[in-house]
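Hi U.,

Before I forget, here's the chain from the pilot set. I'm dumping it here mostly so it's searchable later in email.
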Amino acid sequence: MNIFVFGSSIVSSYWNGAATYYRGCYKYLARRGHRIVFAEPDAYGRQQHLDADDFSYVESIVYRSDYDIDTMLQRAASADVVIKHSGLGVDDELLDQRVLECLPHSIVVFWDVDAPATIARLHADPQDAFRRAIPQYDAILTYGGGLSIRDEYRNCGARAYYSIYNGLDPETHYPVPADPKFACDVAFLGNRLPDREARVDELFLKAAQLAPEKHFLLGGEGWGDKLLPPNVRWIGHVPTAEHNRVNSSASMVMNINRSSMAACGFSPPTRVFEVAGVGACLLCDNWPGIDDCFEPGREILVIHSAEEVVDALFQYDVIARRRIGSAFLARALREHTYGRRAVQAERAFLDCLDCRQTSAAAGQMETKMAGEFA
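Structure:
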């Protein structure tokens, strides 16, 4: 199939938490024989912070949002599948509507990479134009979210719904030698966002205060003016090419979901699988559905408070951490690879195509019968 995608960015992870997800899904869809064009707006300095990776599995197009949208839509209209991701950050509301112009020639899919935020927005504004657009899409795909997000979208009239979780690309995230530059007891990578900061305060920064003899490493944008404990070192934006080194160099790595994702659950972020790929010991904040993905206590350590973070630092020695990290990696390779996610996405597209063909055949039959009885 020819697939045309509107997404935030596949070539840059700068202020773009979905980058790893895009890359995993589309890399392995391409390996299944699909041709993919990925169109992204020139926004938020992403083109000035490109990642040093191979993106040859897609044709990458960078467009100017105020000038090139018509051109992009003209090209999209010839594709078999047109995908509009959420969260481009530029002209989202416009493109949510205008991609529907590609119907009926193309299968048109809305692929939500922040479904809890989308649903919260719809609850806040019953007149949101996207609510009226949902039933027009052939399908809604989401980054995760579980049954509650599925039911919300179905209540809004979604024709079909598929949940495509994050995963591991073992060719991208794998163990590497530790780098003394990133040595620490606990590392956390995440941009400073309004619905994450309080959780970082209560889990990561408070833990640092409770364990002043331990070393904590903070990576991500936006933390420059944050008052940090003296044993927390901020290293700024960490390009994806550096994630393996950071994760392999830390004694433990922490994941902290944004508040909306934690409340909804069933949306393991890319960071979880990046850490799994290097076989590191993960301290994961608690959210519904985590134990559907990994077994707490054996494959990951679930923490509910800063005190539990500190307890884990002293309770688990190097051997125990390695054992947990090895089990974490094995489970990810067995059940959570992007190769498996690509199969699921492909099946969703084929289901949409089958549904379209069945509807067309039924329409032709009704027309024929109407003619016979006229």
